[in-house]
Protein 1
Amino acid sequence: GAVVSQHPSWVICKSGTSVKIECRSLDFQATTMFWYRQFPKQSLMLMATSNEGSKATYEQGVEKDKFLINHASLTLSTLTVTSAHPEDSSFYICSARDSFNEKLFFGSGTQLSVL
Amino acid sequence: AQSVAQPEDQVNVAEGNPLTVKCTYSVSGNPYLFWYVQYPNRGLQFLLKYITGDNLVKGSYGFEAEFNKSQTSFHLKKPSALVSDSALYFCAVRDQAGTALIFGKGTTLSVSS
């Protein structure tokens, strides 16, 4: 079946540094990917919609300069948390939409801890 | 706007008993409905979906869900719970193909032996 690879699975960083999370569709093309954020024991909140070759669309309340999204190819989207702070600590999950059949597939998530 | 409600934060059942995890939804058009399961510190695993067709949908690990249009519900069910079913369950909806999923807040299922 279709696989979405999300890397890294967990990362610890110092406050003020930037962290990049990658989301790759391994066996299908994904013109659209979605980034979610999940706080402990809470739901997944849609952060942004990433479209290949164009700017991402951010949900209300999500700082686009804080969470930089790049979708430079049909199989890769990246989320960069810039100048990370402890409140950015969270579980981030990506979802890729298969361009051929519109199905959605999820990555395994990235646990970010900012010290 | 789309929305999903999971009214129960937690559901407790004994192993071998049937389980139900409730979900109601609101969409402007025809709903695409999904159930996912999440184990601690893991991503989401797809259980089942309803797009069209039979109201009773069968999915992975013996789970099934019943789409009820009049009640706008899509409850997850399993005839006989296992301890290994203990996890966090999310109901999700989208109103058309290609849009992002909107998730409910999740329901923690705890199955005791």
Note: The two ends of chain B are 41 Å apart (CA to CA).
Protein 2
Amino acid sequence: GAVVSQHPSWVICKSGTSVKIECRSLDFQATTMFWYRQFPKQSLMLMATSNEGSKATYEQGVEKDKFLINHASLTLSTLTVTSAHPEDSSFYICSARDPKTGIGGTEAFFGQGTRLTVV
Amino acid sequence: DAKTTQPPSMDCAEGRAANLPCNHSTISGNEYVYWYRQIHSQGPQYIIHGLKNNETNEMASLIITEDRKSSTLILPHATLRDTAVYYCIVRGGGSNYKLTFGKGTLLTVNP
């Protein structure tokens, strides 16, 4: 299947600093990418949907000024956690949609996730 | 997208078939059933999907009831590496292709 790569796999940062997480589709062009957050022992929660060349659409309750999403190219989307706090510590996962697959296709390929720890 | 209900956990012996049920009684005609799994501390992995007919691939089989209100994912010969949380997701075309994850089923394969 298609490959989606996230970087870094894990990061530790100090409270108040910003952290950028990259999500790349390696062998296809992703017009749409999704960012999820997962707290321990919980399911994935969708944070936002980003479409290449346009503003991201955030889910209810997700602060767009805190979680900045940029999808400047068809193979790269970035999530920046600004002014990070310990409560932002979580597992962040991206997924990318291959537009060549239709409604019945697999469509969503996931990155390996980024473990963020804010100290 | 229709809501799904899965048992929180299941156990299976290594080498035996694992049958994971999913209830999606409010599914509508144009919604597909997708199965993903998540091994601890990794991103979800696609397994299989279907609309009406039963489906099989190298990983698993998907059995969808005739009324489409429930489905079963079958791992024919479970291995220890199949221990994971399995998510059943119903998704239609009008939801911008986003996947909404429920709590899933933690499948533990025992030696």
Note: The two ends of chain B are 37 Å apart (CA to CA).
Protein 3
Amino acid sequence: AQSVAQPEDQVNVAEGNPLTVKCTYSVSGNPYLFWYVQYPNRGLQFLLKYITGDNLVKGSYGFEAEFNKSQTSFHLKKPSALVSDSALYFCAVRDFASGGSYIPTFGRGTSLIVHP
Amino acid sequence: DGGITQSPKYLFRKEGQNVTLSCEQNLNHDAMYWYRQDPGQGLRLIYYSQIVNDFQKGDIAEGYSVSREKKESFPLTVTSAQKNPTAFYLCASSIFGTENTEAFFGQGTRLTVV
């Protein structure tokens, strides 16, 4: 089974500082990895994904993610955090299921708190 | 605009009552999913459907039922057999049969037992 893990329940950072939200993965075959963001009482929004190619993937709202095959990691980063970045962040992979389906499978989520 | 619509946004259920959560998409996606979200537990898969008139149980299907009579619609019924239904429910859709495409989510329904 394909899976991802987010080792931190919460990350605190001061506004203007760089932020990192960690994710490690366990997949067989090619890793296709995703990051989503969830604001309070809302659905998840897609931020970015790694398919192949450059290890640094750029996404929405100034976020980027660094794919590291040797460390099996896919950490989400942003050079300068904003208070409005405070939200719940999910790393995800699509796990193979019967019938040719790939089920979106998520980490437990990391709460990012950006302090003014 | 293409997207997924969940309704209602808030729902209150009495003990022993069945309630149905609506999910409609106009993205022309074959695959649809229902997740349950509880604080600190991430998203857990309830049911998924790959095609009309077909659906499969996820990790926590007990006490829930679904139907997929139309491509656009995937309603979830929370039955009285679900002993702890208070949670945030999320519906999603995606292209079927691909590993590298993202899922699209509705805005969620918050269900509370009163």
Note: Chain B has no helices and eleven strands.
